[in-house]
Amino acid sequence: MPTATVQTAIGTPTTSGILLFFTILALTLVITYWAAKRTKSAQEYYAAGRSVSALQNGFALAGDYMSAASFLGIAGMCAMKGFDGMIYATGPTVGWPILMFLLAEPLRNLGKYTFADVVALRLRQGPVRVAAAIGGVTTLVLYTITQMVGAGSLIKLMFGVPYEVAEIIVGVVMLAYVLFGGMLATTWVQITKAVLLLFGVTLLFILTLAHFNFSPGALYAEVSQQYGQSALEPGGLVSSPVEAVSVGLAFIFGVLGLPHILMRFYTVPDAKAARVSVSYATGLVAYFFCIIPIVGFGASALLGRKLIAQVDAGGNMAAPLLSELLGGTPFLGFISAVAFATILAVVAGLTLASASAISHDIYLNVFKKGQASTAQQMRVAKIATVAFGVLAVVLGIFFKGQNVAYMVTITFAVAASANFPALFMSIVWRRFTTQGAVWSILVGTVTAVGIVLFSRTVWVDVFHNPSPLIGLNNPAIVSMPLAFLAGMVVSMFTRSEEEEAKFDALTTRKFLGVGAE
Amino acid sequence: MAKSAREITESADFRRLVSRRRSVTLVLVAAVFVVYFGFILLVAFNKSYLTTRVGEYTTLGIPLSMLVIVLLWVLTMIYVFWANNSYDKEVSRLKAQMTEGDA
Question: Where are the alpha helices (H) located in A232-372, listed in sequence order?
């Protein structure tokens, strides 16, 4: 909280902040109203009628991925820890090229609404869909906790609204987007937010550099003079190479297992559009993570670490404070409103992905064996949406005060272990079987979550035990290979000629798009 | 006469398409691993290299970390360029074999 030594409007609602916040809110609700009139069928609700262009989906993918946590967190890390923040900033981009090379086009050609469609395509619907829903929803719940806890603290910090009220506001507004406007509204809210966020960060980047006559060297010189040359050198971030490789694997393959990212590929008309949309998204994500470190360094040079830490010990307010210094209260209001819109949009995407797992995978394909009217499907989809929205708010309040920063990389590790191995094997390996898929997903989910529970991050920091039972913080390096191994071994013992025979049709559909929806 | 899925997957043309795609993706995936993990392992094992100054105060690590991000994007664009210009043509030719006569 602001102290006597810090002169900042952060934590107090300002006229410009409130005005900009309500402008963005009004704009997104107009989008929702427009989208609601175009969203009647299940295909429109989950996949925006496959009418989204490659450029639009590129922005929406980037929007789904650029969370408030990455924007504020990495800027804060660069401000407080210098070069270590920059090392961290290389991580979030690395999954995107791999997503492009291995999954984007096959996913579009083979699926309908969820990644489980692809895994279940030539395997038995019931077991595969239940397992995929377990893996998918576990990932989404973890991701939602990080977003909701971050949202509550952030909104409290920025606008002075109580934590619980902030949670409920996020829940209600994002439910309005998803419930009435489905994927079309979620996509356009995501695009709006991505444009605003990129604009805000770019402006912050330019204003920072302008302060140093557009010479990054002058900025680094200032950082070095204030905090010593070590601020521009690697510190303690990569202390254990095994841990660093594990985090790297989580970043790479986590993107390939995030259900809300994967379901975006069904909103475009064909595989080529899916491919082109990833190229836009990768460009935007790369640009975003290239310029954020400059903002962080700028904050430490122009504001000083001491002042940033007075407002928030973790450094999360570095970017908002810098915006206030460089552009006054209106710019702070803009950045705050954009950060808020970012949270809303990301949680909306997560909610829609969970609703589709529950209603499309479980209700329609397991309980109803694929036979349900549009009205029935929509009713269940909307019930699932509301249920997940309520769950998000409850989880946000329940985990209040927990340090969730570490949970982002752990969520990626769970996604990389639970969802990616089964998804990948189902499209490349003829002998992959139903039981193989089920065991791969369950082993991946349980080992990833299990290792985290007994590692320092939970066993010591949350349960206050004296020492961790497992000396690894990020499980990906163990849990992902185990998920692959489980899938392979079980498949070898449960060969199915019927399932293997269907692999030819899958292959032509995967490469040529024959029979794609 | 349209060909069946089995006939297509066993045809020489299709096998060539699949193996070419596999080669391209393997090389690109390997390149991503070399670029990213190369950088991370450099941080882990050769910190002094990254602290070399390239400007008055600027260390080599700073432009290098940006180069990593830019290279990841460049690799993505190489794939898109290849797929748009070479892969798609072959796909539409083979797809026509499978669907001809259906229309």
Answer: 241-254, 259-262, 271-302, 305-311, 318-356
Contacts of B69 in chain A (CB under 8 A): 89-90, 93, 286, 289-290
- Out of A87, A275, A505, the one facing B80 most closely (by C-beta) is A275
| Minimum CA–CA partner of B50 in chain A | A233
> Is the residue at B52 inside a domain?
yes
Confidence bin at A459 (pLDDT 50/70/90): confident
Instruction: Flag whether pLDDT at A1 surpasses 50.
Output: no
d(CA A344, CA A363): 27
Distance from CA of A451 to the nearest CA of B (A): 23
- The answer to whether residues A274 and A517 touch, using CB atoms and an 8 Å cutoff, is no
pTM above 0.80, yes or no: yes
Neighbours of B15 (CB within 10 A): 12
Domain that holds residue B31: 23-93
Helices A420-428 and A434-454, packing angle to 10 deg:
160
Determine, yes or no, domain membership for B86.
yes
CA nearest to A388, candidates A260, A262, A251, A256:
A260
Is the CB of residue A288 less than 8 Å from the CB of residue A66? yes
Count of CB contacts below 8 A, A vs B? Answer: 155
In chain B, the number of structural domains is 1
Confidence of residue B102 (pLDDT cuts 50, 70, 90): low
How far, CA to CA in Å, does A257 sit from each of A135, A150, A441, A500? 9, 22, 11, 24
Question: Is B58 close to A217, i.e. CB distance below 8 A?
Answer: yes
Across chain A, mean pLDDT equals 92
Considering the domain boundaries, does residue B101 fall inside one?
no
pLDDT tens profile A383-431: 999 999 999 999 999 988 776 667 888 899 999 999 999 999 999 999 9
Q: Could you read off the pLDDT of A4-57 as tens digits, one per residue?
A: 456 787 777 778 888 888 899 999 999 999 999 999 888 999 999 999 999 999
Top-level CATH class of A39-512? Answer: mainly alpha
More confident residue, A68 or A30: A30
